[in-house]
Design goal:
The protein is of the alpha/beta class. The chain has two domains: 11-42; 61-309, Glycoside hydrolase/deacetylase (TIM Barrel). Helices cover 49% and strands 13% of the residues. The chain contains eleven helices and twelve strands. It has helices at residues 9-40, 42-56, 59-77, 109-114, 118-130, 138-145, 165-178, 199-207, 228-246, 262-270, 304-310, and strands at residues 89-91, 94-97, 99-100, 115-116, 134-135, 155-161, 182-186, 211-215, 252-254, 275-277, 284-286, 296-297. The model is unreliable at 1-7, 37-69 and 72-77 (pLDDT under 50). The structure holds zinc ion. The site of zinc ion has 5 residues, from loops.
């Protein structure tokens, strides 16, 4: 028997048109989704850059990628904006310290986390020294990133936030012992009082050539809570105050509490800074994220084994 395909006039006009429109809509939606993922999502962009590096690098970068992804997830939860990474890139650990001293109040667990006892700090610097690390300034790091200089082998940046007096009393002698350069972030309006550094101590350390001082706002507010004018004041006045005291350019800023967003990054750039540092975890430092470079927190109770793993 001969099979004949009977054309249904309704199907060929009405239903076929519907199927066609649906197909076009689905393809269009898929295209929009793909474009969004590739162009709109900063993490995806940085992880693509990351992936290229991974091919030519080694296993340890895979670990970094995992940790960066974790940090990204954490930061997303706490609504911290993480900048996309692109352009020239270097992989350098920037370590963050607060207090170098014994916790005066052991019941204060938060202070425990922020306080590295001097003997532990000495042990950590000794580890860096014996293992061939070179502590560099942020200006050297930037010059290395931009190809203006060659970074030394195993570069590391040691940063100390908040300008506490124990930096002068406890950290400075140990840094001198190992001839390690360090960066101190100063909330300029808080100096010369209570447990903060005096300007005389800051100037003495500056003259040693071992310590560079960079800005950390005027009085340490969370910048994301402020109006644009207040943000501008905190960013520009701290730069001016440090430059007036030390007579040299101040090129870097650290966000109090690591809190920033795109408007604040632009304010930092407009104020004439080269870059700024956050507190989110990572060692991928690029032109793309130079207004919010990641750092590695060194908690007070860390063992030397765990310290070594963080580098
Ligand atoms: Zn701080």
């Amino acid at each position: 028997m001969k099979k004949t395909v009977k054309k249904n006039p309704d199907f060929s006009t009405h239903t076929q048109a519907k199927v066609l429109i649906s197909a076009v809509l689905i393809i269009f939606s898929l295209l929009v989704l793909i474009i969004y993922v590739y162009r709109g999502n900063p993490y995806f962009k940085s992880s693509v850059g990351h992936h290229k590096k991974l091919n030519e690098a080694n296993h340890s970068l895979e670990t970094i990628k995992q940790k960066t992804y974790q940090a990204h997830k954490e930061a997303t939860k706490s609504a911290i904006t993480i900048p996309p990474s692109y352009g020239r890139t270097v992989y350098v650990p920037i370590l963050t310290y607060h207090y170098i001293g014994n916790n005066p109040n052991p019941a204060d667990k938060a202070r425990d986390y922020l306080s590295v006892p001097p003997d532990k700090f000495d042990e950590q610097m000794s580890y860096l020294s014996k293992n061939g690390y070179n502590a560099i300034t942020l200006d050297t790091l930037d010059a290395g990133l931009m190809g203006k200089t060659t970074l030394p082998p195993k570069p590391v940046v040691l940063t100390f936030d908040d300008g506490y007096i124990d930096f002068y009393l406890n950290a400075f002698p140990i840094l001198k012992k190992y001839r390690f350069h360090a960066v101190s972030f100063i909330p300029t309006g808080l100096m010369n009082q209570g447990f903060y550094l005096s300007w005389a101590q800051i100037k003495e350390m500056d003259r040693s050539g071992l310590i560079s001082f960079e800005a950390h706002s005027v009085n340490h507010p969370n910048l994301t809570d402020l109006t644009p004018d207040q943000v501008k004041y905190q960013i520009t006045e701290s730069k001016k105050a440090l430059e007036a005291q030390l007579g040299k350019p101040v090129n870097f800023f650290a966000y109090p509490y690591g809190a920033s967003n795109e408007q604040i990054w632009q304010a930092v750039k407009s104020a004439g800074y080269v870059g700024a540092l956050g507190t989110w975890y990572g060692i991928t430092l690029s032109e793309g994220n130079i207004l919010d470079w990641p750092r590695i927190k060194i908690p007070g109770n860390i063992t030397i084994g765990d310290f070594a793993k963080k580098l």
